[in-house]
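Inputs:
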Amino acid sequence: MADPVLTGNTGSVVTIRLNRPEKKNAINRAMYEALTAALRAAATARSVRVVILRGGDDFSAGNDIADFLASGKPAGMQPVLDFFDVLAGFPKPLIAGVRGAAIGIGTTLLLHCDVVLATPSARFQLPFVQLGLVPEAASTLLLPAAVGRLKAAWWLLTGDGFDAEAALAAGLITKTVAETALDTDLNALAARLAALPPAAVRQTKALLKAPHRSAVREAMALEAEAFGAQLKSAEAKEAFTAFMEKRKPDFSRFE
Ligand code: COA
C-alpha cells in the first residue's frame, strides 16, 4: 500500500502531500501522526525555511468518518489534538495548495496557513453540525475573524459547500490559480519565501500570530471538550453510520 503521507525535501522547502486518493484524502489516525511528525521535523530542521501542504485531485475529505465511529473515547482524539497543536504553533511559512474536496479539517487547517492557493475545482465545506459534531482547530475563533461572523455562522450551521471564488471573496484563501498552474505556483512561491532572510520571516509570522495565540489555544480547548462529548453522542453515531451505509441520516428522534 502507498504511503498515505508523502514528504519531499529540496533542502529549504519541504512538501507534505496527502496521498490517500481512493478515500479522497480523508485523514485517519496514522495520517494525523505522520502529518504531526513531518511538521515537527520541518519546524526543527535548520535547513527548512518553508513548508507546502497539499493533496492530489482532492485536498482532503476531512477526518476519516470510520475513525470517528471507532474513537468514541477521548484517547482516540489525541493524534488530532497533537496535529492541531503543531499546526497552530508552526514557526515557518506554511503554504497550502487546494484542489477538489477540502472538507472539515481540510478547510479548517487552512486557517492556520500563511498562504492558501486554490484551483477552480476546489470545493470547501464545514459539515461538523451535519455529522453531530462541533467545529475544531480553533475555527470557531479563526473563521469569523477571517470571513466575518455571519458568513462563518452560515457555513458552520448549514454545512453548505462553497467554491474557490466564494472562498477568495470571503478572505479564506489568498488567490485562485489555474488547475495546471498549481504545482508551479506553489513551488515558485515557496522558493521566493525561502530566499528571504529567515529570521525576519519567522519573527514576522510569530508577530502576526501573537495577538491571537492564547485565544487560539483557549478556543481549541473549548472546542475539544464539546467535540469529545458530541463524538460519543447518539446523534453523531447516527450521522457516522448513515455515511458509512450511504444513506441519509435521520435526526428526528433527538431532543
Ligand atoms: N471518511 C471516510 N471515508 C471517506 C471520507 C471520510 N471523510 N470521505 C470520503 N470517503 C470515502 C468514501 O466512503 C468512499 O469510500 P468507498 O469507495 O470505500 O465507498 C471513497 O472515499 C470515495 O468517496 P465517495 O463518497 O464515493 O466520492 P464522491 O466523489 O461521491 O464524494 C465527497 C466525495 C468528499 C463529497 C464525499 O465522499 C463526502 O462527502 N465525504 C465525507 C466528507 C465529510 O463529511 N468529512 C468529515 C468532515 S468533519
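The pocket of coenzyme A is lined by residues 23-24, 26, 61-66, 101, 103-104, 127-128, 131 (CB under 6 Å). Flag for discussion at group meeting.
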